[in-house]
Amino acid sequence: AIFENLSERLQAAFKRLRGKGKVTEEDVSEVMREIRVALLEADVSYKVVKDFIKKVKERAVGQEVLASLTPAQQVIKIVHEELIELLGGIQSRLTTAPKPPTVIMLVGLQGAGKTTSAGKLANLLRKQGKKPLLVAADIYRPAAVKQLQVLGEQLQIPVFAMGTSVSAVNIAKGALEYAASHGRDMVIIDTAGRLHINEELMQELQDIKAAIKPHEILLVVDAMTGQTAVEVAETFNAQLGIDGVIMTKLDGDAKGGAALSVRAVTGKPIKFAGMGEKLDALEPFYPDRLASRILGMGDVLSLIEKAQAAFDQAEAEKLQEKMRKAEFTLEDFLNQMQQMKKLGPLENILSMLPGIGGKELKELQKQINPKEMARVEAIILSMTPQERAKPEIIDSSRKKRIARGSGTRVQDVNKLLEQFKQAKAMMKQFAQLEKKMKKKGGIK
Ligand code: GDP
């Protein structure tokens, strides 16, 4: 999974602090040492690691004391914030032209995922209501033109091509005219790639840039190539000037070094992340969400988004309101378990929740299987409305009655009540986190 190794190492480092009422300087030093090793092993640039550790240490030592957090949480909070910063701070959006079309030039080495990303980006922009035009400007490989045309057909998005005997500059110019006369407001140019950076390639890209003055030059790099990706970004930025990065293959990147270094090294943000081979697997890059994920706080925001897409919107809002006010009842719990089934493979959802690792995941999966859900349903249905609303009133004689009524055992009823308590605590955490993130401007 994405950044798995790094995530595991960091979480292990923080385990040290858990449950400590007081964190000594020594504790912090030890944790920082482990984080340092974790980052280096993740293939983050040496200098980036050094600066990162220095910043966190300074803040951790001279920190303002927040009453609401334990010292350990405080350290985690600082690391979290610095990780967000490292990943680029706030989300970097595409620049759009004051007058359409917006012209986006994709550049990068062969195999990085440039052509695929062109298709994915067009697809994403169309979902946002734009009218993209794909442009095949890689004139050295006929296969590249064909590949883009196939993608365009699959997506039903027009592809502008002039074969391989016209210069890339003229193709790009022709594409702009075509876009203007056909009402396409986003032009995505797939340029030539090479196996290695060479002068000829750079010259051609500079020529295209000079001729059409793109609003965005996005460099496509492969996350799996680690520090090489960062070096490629440095060179492209120095020689051509880039506005941002599309980091591909993050789905298979257990380390995370490239994603964590590229912004600090080049000063240019990651704008999109490739998360798979499919044409919908390109996402805007959210530093805050990724940082939370790396630290095992779970990608709460994605979860909420997913949940909202699956749930009936009004229903979801009601539920969130209840969570906020901690009015969540067993009735809602039942409802929610049933809704969870709609969210797709449970594993995906649960792995996004904060503080749920492999072991807890397995346990939860056991609990939320269809047979178990049927049992839970039966138990809740055997409760009176008052009991569902206020489970505290369920004493042992009520438990016996409920067990009898649902054909289960008292221990099953106990187990459910315990699960419910945990779920409720988790909901509360969500609500608080969500509130915090909203305040920080993380949710748009
Ligand atoms: P180009 O030479 O830069 O145009 O690269 P392509 O677009 O042809 O992509 C090269 C390979 O990488 C193809 O097999 C793609 O399916 C794959 N690929 C591209 N982006 C991603 C991604 O985000 N995740 C994964 N897993 N594979 C990707």
Automatic annotation (TrEMBL):
A single MF term (Gene Ontology): 7S RNA binding
Amino-acid positions noted as binding GTP in the UniProt annotation, renumbered to this chain: 108-115, 190-194, 248-251
Pfam family of the protein (one): SRP_SPB
Subcellular location: Cytoplasm
Cellular component GO terms, alphabetical: signal recognition particle
Coiled-coil portions: 304-343
Keywords: Coiled coil, Cytoplasm, GTP-binding, Hydrolase, Nucleotide-binding, Ribonucleoprotein, RNA-binding, Signal recognition particle
Gene Ontology BP annotations: SRP-dependent cotranslational protein targeting to membrane
Source species, domain of life: Bacteria
Gene3D superfamilies: P-loop containing nucleotide triphosphate hydrolases, Signal recognition particle SRP54, nucleotide-binding domain, Signal recognition particle, SRP54 subunit, M-domain
Record-annotated SRP54-type proteins GTP-binding domain positions: 269-282
This enzyme's EC code(s): 3.6.5.4
Notes concerning its domains: Composed of three domains: the N-terminal N domain, which is responsible for interactions with the ribosome, the central G domain, which binds GTP, and the C-terminal M domain, which binds the RNA and the signal sequence of the RNC.
The protein's role, per its UniProt record: Involved in targeting and insertion of nascent membrane proteins into the cytoplasmic membrane. Binds to the hydrophobic signal sequence of the ribosome-nascent chain (RNC) as it emerges from the ribosomes. The SRP-RNC complex is then targeted to the cytoplasmic membrane where it interacts with the SRP receptor FtsY.
Family: Belongs to the GTP-binding SRP family. SRP54 subfamily.
Subunit structure: Part of the signal recognition particle protein translocation system, which is composed of SRP and FtsY.
Protein name: Signal recognition particle protein
Annotated source species: Carboxydocella thermautotrophica
